[in-house]
């Protein structure tokens, strides 16, 4: 569901995960198609929140905010295992799930900035939890190792020294999340072509 910037070069092989024999498996292909759509929906919801931040707070251009970003402690979930030449589905799926967890908690920042759109944030969080659950279920079905996270969110919500930093932090949380989703999307799409 989640992909940042993946390399455009073709992946030559999958190592470690028993996916080559599953590439034609209808259940696995159905899982991929459904979750590509799910990821696309989540990306659309994040884009809607980005537009709301732009319209409401006039925070629209990343290059204008880069100096402020240096002062912020904004998590950026890694997805390097989803775009290496030695791509491994197990580690990529695990990184997607871990990233979803990080951004799920960070969205509380957005909810505080856009209280009138709490429903959209809550829907997005529910979709993210469902996507993570779908990936975990598929990993279990494939016999891949999974990590079960506690239901309560133990990741701290980012804190900011000023209201302006809070606003800019929200902007970068959404920008990072959108890049993460783009990479995840590309990784899932790559799996459909094997």
From TrEMBL:
Recorded GO CC terms: extracellular region
Main location: secreted
SMART domains noted in UniProt: IL6
Keyword Cytoplasm: no
Cited PROSITE patterns: INTERLEUKIN_6 (PS00254)
Any one GO MF annotation of this record: cytokine activity
Compartments in which it is found: Secreted
Entry keywords, A to Z: Disulfide bond, Glycoprotein, Growth factor, Secreted, Signal
The protein's name in its UniProt record: MGF factor
Organism of origin: Loxia leucoptera (White-winged crossbill)
